[in-house]
Each structure stands twice: as C-alpha cells, then as structure tokens.
C-alpha cells in the first residue's frame, strides 16, 4: 500500500530532505511497496529473543584518556562550503 | 609469449622482486590501459596517474635495494568510499563531489605501507547503495563482459562495480571493495573475478565512509583467490580507532591456499534452493561446485538455515535505519555541497535534496520511518531480533560443517536497460549474500563458469568467524576444478 502524502512529507521533514511535490507521490509508492514487503517479518516468532546489536565479536575496551589528535583547525575547515575566518557559517538561528 | 597484461597480482609481485619488470613499467602499462578502455567502462571516478608514477619510482628504488613490502610496486584501484589523504573521495555522491579528506583510511594506509601504488578512485553505487552500479552520481559502470551475440551494455553488479570492472578488464591488479549485504561478492560474480568479505571486525572501518556500520566490511577483489589472500593480509588487522575492530592476529592467508579440502565438511543450505528463485544455469553450477569439492576430498552435508527468507527484509530495515543515522552528517555545513537558504533547516533540506540521488533519498526516508516514534518496535526492534535468529542459524549449522557452499547471485549480469523498476526486485539480487552479512561471518565468491548467454557466474563459500583460511582453501579447490580462464570482451590485453 502506498504511503500517503502526509506521511511521506512528515518523514522527509524528520530526515531534513526537501521534496518536490512530484517526488512525494513516487516516493510514497516505492516506500509503500518496500514497507509491505518487510511486513512478512511479522510471521517470525521473536518471543524471548534478544535483539542483535552488532556481532558481539569485538570486546569493549578501555583506553588512556589523553589527547592523540588535534591542533589541525585548518584541516578541519578545509572542506567547509562556506566559512568566515576560523568558523563554519550558518544562516542566522537566533533573532 | 605472455604480455604485461597477463600478470596476476602474485606473478607481478614475483617478477618485480626478481627485477624482471620495473614498477614504473607495470604502472605505466596500467595507466595506458585505463586511458584506452575507461572512457567506455567508467570504472574510475578520479584517476591519479602522477601520484601513481611517483609511487612506482619509489617502489623501484626500494626493490633495487632488496627492500619493500609485500605489495611493493603493485598497481591497485581503491573504491571511492575509502578516504585517501589529499585525493578527492566522493562515495559516488554529488554531496561529496569536492570532498578532499585530510586523512587516510586504515585499510588504504595499510596497503600503502606495504608499497602498493594507487591508480585512482573507483566508481560505485552512491554511498554503496545498489546492486548494479546504476546509482552513481558519476554515471553507470559498464561490465567488460558481453553476452554472446549481443552488444547490450551489462551491469557490473554493485555496489563495488567500478572495482569489479577495473579488475576484470585488467586496468588494475587488485582493488579494495566494501560489502554491506553483498557489495563485494555479487559484483565479483558478475565480472568473473574473486572477492572476499571477511569476518565483521577483521578490517578496520576507520576512514571508510559509513553506510550501515554494523554490516560494512572492507575486503579484497582480484582475479583469483591467491591475489585476494595477499591483499587481505595487508588490509586486515586490529585498529584501536575502530571500536568494532577485533584484536586477533592476521594469519598468513596465502599459505592456506595449499591446504586442500580433504575431510572438509561442506554444508548445502536447503532453503537456498527453495526460497530464492535461482536460475537453471545457477542451479547446475551449484551442483558442479558440490561435485568438485567432493572429488577433492570434501564431504557434502544437507543443512538448514530456517530463517533464510527473512534475512533480506530484516537486512533492509537494519541497514536503512543505520544509513539514515549515518547520512545525517551530510548537512551542507562542515563539508560537502551546500545550497543556501534563509533558515538553517531550509539549508539542510535544500542541500540534502540537491546532493543525494533518488535511491539514497528513498533509503534514508525508509530508515527514518522505521526508527520513528510508533514504528521503532514494530520494525527496527523486530528486525534486530530476527537478526539474532539468522545468526543462530549459522552458528548451529557450523556445529556440524566447516563451510557452506551456495551460489553468489540468483543470475548472471543483466543489461543496464533491464533494471527492474520495482526496488524490491532489485534487492533480490542480494538474496544469497545478505544472510552471511547479517550474521557477521566471512564469505567469498569465486568465478566458476559461464551461463548459457556467456556471462560469468560465481559460487559463494560462507565460513566460521575468523576462519577465512578454510574459505580460501575451499575456494581454491573450486578454482582449480573450474579452471576459469575466460576473459571479458573488453580487456587491457586485447588490442582494439
């Protein structure tokens, strides 16, 4: 079943992806068919099964709390689409 | 007499060490092949011939002194998902179209340390999301293979389609790939080459652009398993900068080639017959593979992986949920493409709308949906529980067998214009490869024959955690029996 325009628009808003009106309908259809397809997981009995969070092969480890990197402001800023001196810039957030 | 384009990675390494050929000659021959063929194949996004020549010169100097690592002077291609210091890294996305990393991924750093020469960055599906290399912002990659009596452009598989095509066409001696649900194995099968997805945690993910962090794993792609073994030994190893990297020694993978398969217990998962819709040619090849292993001394067992049919839908929930989170960082502020707007949210929305392609948007939106309030338990949490069951299926099967043998993909390469319009149909390409990814176990693909239309097919072997050696031994037995020496229509060694 196709996802309705309101749902697609709400999800797109959550994901901060701007959509054209034409895209909403196509995406609604595609997403609907994928969601319908994954519904088959409801057939599986998962009572008492723990969720798998990663493969559990790497053991948690501690490390010394010390600086191992840094002091490279220009490198960090090198790919900024827009900057002002040593700062990233964004549109005005607070009036 | 065999020419410079007949070298495998292993034979080139030996010829370099014996000074029968120079690294500069070898590198120049490959740069020349890229210039001749890649206008058509489009396997490279960024070529780095000048860096490669410098690297080759340094390799020759080291070799002349009897020094140099195991890959000294070997020309490789790097999937454009690995960050390379000072060389543009795009993930085949417009949103990273001008991104130049100020650091090197651990996997590529390991290869450079061993003396490898990088010819450039290889094309892929955008953010590694695809099974046909049709979603790249830098255009599709063409498979160097052709069907008999047809000039239709075939897909190389995906997402490591550029890596697969470049290796198959002889443009590089080996390449790095990444595999989230089959992105090394399926393109390897589609292009008649070998590829290994190691155990999750074997190769560091540091500096590899993330798609689905709990599944992404780097691995080698090359003409045969000997070459893959050499590459994997260099790429693998513990890295404190990746919290999922596993601190276990890297064995000598090359040595396991000679191990043989006498007494090896090979499982055939019966659900891979009944639940997948594999083609007739693929089914026949699978049976051949069983016979080959039996003749080499292995024993075949019927095994069951009862949750097989649920692997793909649970994969798409888990992977897309992780992707929606991982790709949140592309916001037009700190790096990547920016589209200006009066408000900050407007800037995010406009930048992400312009920077991401259709498939990536679709996947981020589904991932966002399954993680959103009211759906999390029904979709995401349930999928994670199903994932536990899938992993248990494998662990149980491996109580009785050493490896599993399956096809790599349900069919051979399809044509670019035969791409299914329904996204779910496209996802079914990964039906055989996704379960091992979900479980985190290692798997590989070896070329094993041609289908009725003359395009290559691969067989997949799946192994126990950190037992890549047994996989390589079994895969090599298949290679020897299959004697796959076919070459694609487009190949560096064929003069136009």
CATH class of the domain at 5-43 in chain A: Mainly Alpha
Lateral strand order in the biggest sheet of chain B: 1-3-2-4-6-5-10-11-9-7-8
CATH topology of the domain at 5-43 in chain A: Histone, subunit A
Q: Looking at this structure, what is the CATH superfamily of the domain at 9-259 in chain B?
A: Amidase signature (AS) domain
SSE topology:
The complex is a heterodimer of chains A (95) and B (496).
Chain A: H1 5-15, H2 21-38, H3 73-77, E1 83-84, E2 87-88
Antiparallel strand pairs in A: 1-2
Helix pairs in contact in A: 1-2
Chain B: H1 9-17, H2 23-41, E1 44-47, H3 49-64, E2 75-79, H4 106-113, E3 117-122, H5 161-168, E4 174-179, H6 185-191, E5 194-197, E6 217-222, H7 225-235, E7 265-269, H8 271-274, H9 280-295, E8 299-303, H10 308-326, H11 344-355, H12 358-371, H13 376-397, E9 403-407, H14 423-427, H15 434-439, E10 443-450, E11 456-463, H16 468-482
Parallel strand pairs in B: 2-3, 2-4, 7-8, 7-9
Antiparallel strand pairs in B: 1-3, 4-6, 5-6, 5-10, 9-11, 10-11
Helix pairs in contact in B: 2-3, 5-6, 10-12, 10-13
What this model shows, in words?
- The complex is a heterodimer of chains A (95) and B (496).
- Chain A is 36% helix and 4% strand.
- With 95 residues, chain A is mainly alpha-helical.
- Chain A has a domain at 5-43: Histone, subunit A.
- Chain A has a two-stranded antiparallel ribbon.
- In chain A, a hairpin with a 2-residue loop joins β1 and β2 (87-88).
- The longest helix of chain A has 18 residues, at 21-38.
- The radius of gyration of chain A is 23 Å and the shape is flat.
- The mean pLDDT of chain B is 96.
- Chain B is built from 16 helices and eleven strands.
- Chain B is globular, with a radius of gyration of 21 Å.
- Chain B has a domain at 9-259: Amidase signature (AS) enzymes (Alpha-Beta Complex), CATH 3.90.1300.
- In chain B, a hairpin with a 5-residue loop joins β10 and β11.
- The longest helix of chain B is centred in the last third of the chain and has 22 residues, at 376-397.
- Chain B is α/β, with parallel strands linked by helices.
- The chains are: A mainly alpha (95), B alpha/beta (496).
- Chains A and B meet through α1 and α2 of A and α10, α11, α12 and α13 of B.
